[in-house]
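Section 4.2 – Deliverable D4.2 (structural model, holo form)

The reporting period included a commitment to supply a predicted holo structure for the target in complex with hydroxy diiron-OXO moiety. Inputs used:
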Amino acid sequence: MINLKILDALNIQIQKEFFSEYLYISMEAYFAEHDLDGFANFFNVQAREERDHAYKFFNYVNRAGGKVILEAFDKPKSDFSTPLDVFESALEHEKFITKSIHDLLDLALESKDHTTVSFLNWFVDEQSEEEESMNKVVKKLRLLNENPAGLFMLDQELSQRTYIPPVV
Ligand code: OFO
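Output (structure tokens):
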């Protein structure tokens, strides 16, 4: 049976991952409204991956003999001003999630819970990839400075992102 302090932290992480899904759907909606379908696709895939992350924690808590408790979450931001504003917000959010995963890992290390440490290592790598992917788009958007032709090309590029279901 998993230690209660870690169990609480894992349940809070489930909430954060589901909130990430909801936030990215809100970002998808911004782009869908502006007919930037490639950008919308990028966040649609991102949202689905966040849901998978939530279930990864959900399944882990179950396997560890703990009880999953779902927490409420706030309304996600929806008043974005530009595509760059959306991606800067997404990058900030990813940094927040990375810190949360690192704090969880510190807790598991302090408790010498090596099973949870091993489980969390996947998320440490995943977060660094996600920060990198958001940051790449932030940098491109800063460079193109709302140039319509540049936005169109980036929209084409982001339409190529595909959802890959997790291996279970
Ligand atoms: Fe769940 O990976 Fe980002 O937030």
